[in-house]
Write a structure and sequence with these properties.
10-stranded parallel beta sheet, about 45% helix, TIM Barrel, alpha/beta, about 350 residues, globular
Length: about 350
């Protein structure tokens, strides 16, 4: 198995923007030193849920501070950016990192972000598909020519080009079963965050992806099943709860607010309404439920046992560990990263 570290860059009231950025820079370099395989960032806008509106800026800094880890986006929200600009910026990151970019993309899900950019949520799928097609052209062809409902490009040459050929690995954010099937059929890789999704649902979704991947004739040795999980390895159960409870409950309360933040809920398309329906469940989440059913928290042996169960049930090949969540703090996050690298990872390699 391979293991990564993920940063959302949340800003609870007990920390500062400067502290959030400084911690990510330091912890990403530490992940490189500890032997993790990858570091991932997320794009978000207009709230303390995530203060990384321009991942390419931060990723350029990480490229300078790291030497070995893959650098991944989880995800770049394609409808919020012009695809030619997106292609230029991320090709530049691939150059600066000497070919270490993994390009994860999605269409967004927070009503407040769509409202801030004045983009109807109902257009997100079509905008996403058009943007992705343009980016692929920009990275593989001498000139881009595209005619769509939202973008028109005629004979544009895009520079720089990525180091990786034909382009950096592209990973599509997946939630619904039909998306897993569509992505697998096209031979594309995916990203998922199944933390609050029942294991049986994810098992079926991942099995569908693997089956369709094989049926479509894609190489079996390139089949990957990655998943993102909240992770904390503490000294003992008491210390784990003391160190994580405030931060994890802040995260879920904030998520409940941003997924339902719409100026007019009636305008939210059907495909997005399950986020609004999840608001009550997110608001009522307890620490005991999360520790029992959702997160990888506890002493090393407990985390090993739960991770082994998830690997066997879901067929996981990659685990992305969300270790600095909800303003956890630099020292606490680093200690968890160290314990996981020293005690957990060797059991799965």
């Amino acid at each position: 198995m391979k293991f990564g570290v993920f940063f959302l860059l949340e800003q609870p009231e007990w920390t500062t923007q400067a502290r959030v950025y400084a911690d990510v820079l330091a912890q990403a370099a530490y992940a490189d030193e500890l032997g993790y395989d990858s570091v991932w960032l997320a794009e978000h806008h207009f709230s303390e849920y995530g203060i990384c509106p321009s991942m390419a800026v931060l990723m350029g800094a990480l490229a300078e501070r790291t030497r070995r880890v893959r650098l991944g986006t989880a995800v770049t929200i394609l409808p919020f950016n012009h695809p030619l600009r997106t292609a230029e910026e991320w090709a530049m990151v691939d150059q600066l990192s000497e070919g270490r970019l993994d390009f994860g993309v999605g269409r967004g899900y927070q009503p407040g972000e769509f409202g801030g950019f004045d983009i109807p949520m109902g257009e997100s799928r079509e905008r996403f598909e058009e943007a992705l097609a343009i980016i692929k052209q920009a990275w593989t062809q001498d000139r881009v020519n595209f005619e769509g409902a939202y973008y028109r490009v005629r004979g544009v040459r895009v520079l720089p080009r990525p180091v990786q050929t034909p382009h950096p690995p592209i990973r599509i954010a997946c939630v619904s079963p039909d998306t897993f099937e569509r992505v697998a059929r096209r031979g594309e890789k995916f990203l998922s965050a199944p933390s609050i999704t029942p294991v049986d649902y994810m098992k079926a979704a991942y099995a569908t992806y693997a089956r369709v991947w094989r049926e479509a004739g894609h190489p079996a040795d390139q089949l990957e099943i990655p998943a993102l999980y909240f992770t904390h390895v503490g000294a003992d159960a008491t210390a784990t709860r003391r160190d994580t409870e405030r931060s994890i409950l802040w995260y879920f309360a904030t998520l409940a607010r941003v997924v339902a933040a719409s100026r007019d809920p009636a305008q939210v398309p059907p495909a997005y309404r399950f986020y609004a329906r999840a608001k009550a469940n997110l608001e009522s989440v307890t620490y005991d439920f999360l520790a029992r059913e959702v997160v990888l928290f506890g002493e090393a042996e407990r985390v090993i046992d739960r991770l082994a169960m998830l690997r066997d049930e879901l067929g996981l090949t990659h685990v992305i560990c969300w270790m600095n969540f909800g303003g956890l703090g630099d020292h606490t996050a680093r200690e968890s990263m160290r314990r996981f690298a020293e005690k957990v990872i060797p059991r799965f390699r």
